[in-house]
Amino acid sequence: MAAIFQRSLDATLRTGALGVLLSATLFAGGFYYYAYPAYTRVGFAPEQPIPFSHQLHVGQVGMDCRYCHTHVEESPHANVPATQTCMNCHNPEKANVKGNSPLLAPARESWKSGDPIEWKRIHQLPGYAYFNHSVHVARGVACVSCHGQINEMKVVYHDQPLTMGWCLNCHYHPELKVRPKEEVTNMLWKPEGDKTQKQVGTELKDKLGLNPPNHCGGCHR
Fold first, then answer.
1. What is this structure's pTM?
2. Across 10-37, average pLDDT
3. Domain boundaries, the chain
4. Is the C-alpha dihedral spanning 142, 144, 150, 155 positive or negative?
5. 111 contacts 83 by C-beta, under 8 angstroms
6. What is the 3-state secondary structure (H, E, C) of 126-187?
7. From the CA atom positions of the chain, what is the Rg in Å?
8. For the segment 166-204, what is each residue's pLDDT rounded down to a tens digit?
9. Helix, strand, coil % in the chain, rounded to nearest 5
């Protein structure tokens, strides 16, 4: 009697089963890796060349974000401050605040040499995603929405996951995030009176005609 299945089928089945198992393993591993907080950078807080405390400068002294990050309202990218910005307060030649502090030595060296301070980047989106910082600020998306309560951070860390799903939650429901533009850098802003964030946000959404893109082409070019 002729064989119904050829011997080569055994090898084919084994190879196929191995391929399915390997694919499932890679998928599970990839999903775990990309969903893991370490990948999304949440909590990432690299040691900086100068221990700059936002808790002190913003929370206690009351400095506005735009004093250092001067282009947040007009540039696609938020800038780090030039060394001269630091020297406005910490110039040792003018007996300013802690001008001779050992902790500020890198700033003084940068000021004399003209070489920029090598700050380490904390917040970073994937290269395939397009994000315009000024557009979001102009629509009333506050600093705290993405960066957290910077005014309470002695050491700045990556606060939000900045994943596609996280961004889309805001794009689908911008009324839960937007606030008056003049309050964007106010770390302690709350809706006035009995109004809720949603009520204020809905009014602004209707007034400004907010309709953020929620399709792939809106952020991926």
1. 0.78
2. 64
3. 54-80+119-219
4. negative
5. yes
6. CCCECCCHHHHHHCCECHHHHHCCHHHCCCCCCCCCCCHHHHHHHHHCHHHCECCHHHCCCC
7. 25
8. 999 999 999 999 999 999 999 999 999 999 999 999 999
9. 50, 0, 50
